[in-house]
């Protein structure tokens, strides 16, 4: 009986650890470290990375999460090398978009900058995703972009909403899934080993 109770508790902890984070999948995040993701402003990835061309008109941000419900805020910092104070100002600017996520899996959030006077062709910027499920600390990820009126390499098919059956539907890439689930698989192995040794 004690074995069953311990196994149940371990599996419950495993389930919460697997779904406890999110990953910025498109444009690609600077990096993902689940232990450091609660570190503002960019989940401990504070160094600029390769920039993605981001369309000024009809852009979007896509995330992948295991949470059923959460809030997601997308901020943009118009700067070649943003500092921590820049992120604080961006969170309260009119360029921010805040939305509710109501399903696990992929979520695509429209992020159109065509009405923003600071969004000019060739401008360097950093996009920050701020995720709050209400079950844990607020989580952060960033991606670096170059704003463009003709982002030729922009992958519009990457806009996936798992909770919308009429929306785009594709299979998550192995790299995206691995980044989110690697910790979960390790935890499963630990649970199995512990169960065998009980």
TrEMBL record:
The chain crosses the membrane at residues 177-196. It is found in: Cell membrane; Endomembrane system. Residues 1-20 form the signal peptide. The keyword Transmembrane helix applies. InterPro entries: BIM1-like (IPR046936), BIM1-like_dom (IPR046530). Keywords: Cell membrane, Glycoprotein, Lipoprotein, Membrane, Signal, Transmembrane, Transmembrane helix. The keyword Cytoplasm does not apply. Coiled coil: none annotated. It is a lipid-anchor. Its main location: membrane. GO terms for cellular component: endomembrane system; plasma membrane. Residues 19-162 form the Copper acquisition factor BIM1-like domain. It comes from the Eukaryota. PANTHER family: HYPHAL ANASTAMOSIS-7 PROTEIN. This is Copper acquisition factor BIM1-like domain-containing protein. It comes from Jimgerdemannia flammicorona.
């Amino acid at each position: 009986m004690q074995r069953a109770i311990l196994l149940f508790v371990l599996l419950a902890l495993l389930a919460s650890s697997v779904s406890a984070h999110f990953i910025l999948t498109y444009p690609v995040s600077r990096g993902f470290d689940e232990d450091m993701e609660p570190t503002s402003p960019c989940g401990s990835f504070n160094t600029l990375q390769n920039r993605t061309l981001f369309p000024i008109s009809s852009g979007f941000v896509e995330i992948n999460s295991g949470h059923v419900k959460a809030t997601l805020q997308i901020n943009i910092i118009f700067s070649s090398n943003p500092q921590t104070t820049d992120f604080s100002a961006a969170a309260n600017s009119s360029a921010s978009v805040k939305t509710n996520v109501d399903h696990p899996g992929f979520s695509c959030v429209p992020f159109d900058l065509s009405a923003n006077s600071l969004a000019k062709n060739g401008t360097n910027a950093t996009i920050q995703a701020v995720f709050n499920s209400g079950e844990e600390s607020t989580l952060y990820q960033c991606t670096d972009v170059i704003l463009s009126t003709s982002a030729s390499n922009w992958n519009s098919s990457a806009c996936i909403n798992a909770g919308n059956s009429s929306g785009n539907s594709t299979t998550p890439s192995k790299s995206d899934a691995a980044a989110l689930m690697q910790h979960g698989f390790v935890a499963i192995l630990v649970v199995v080993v512990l169960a065998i040794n009980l």
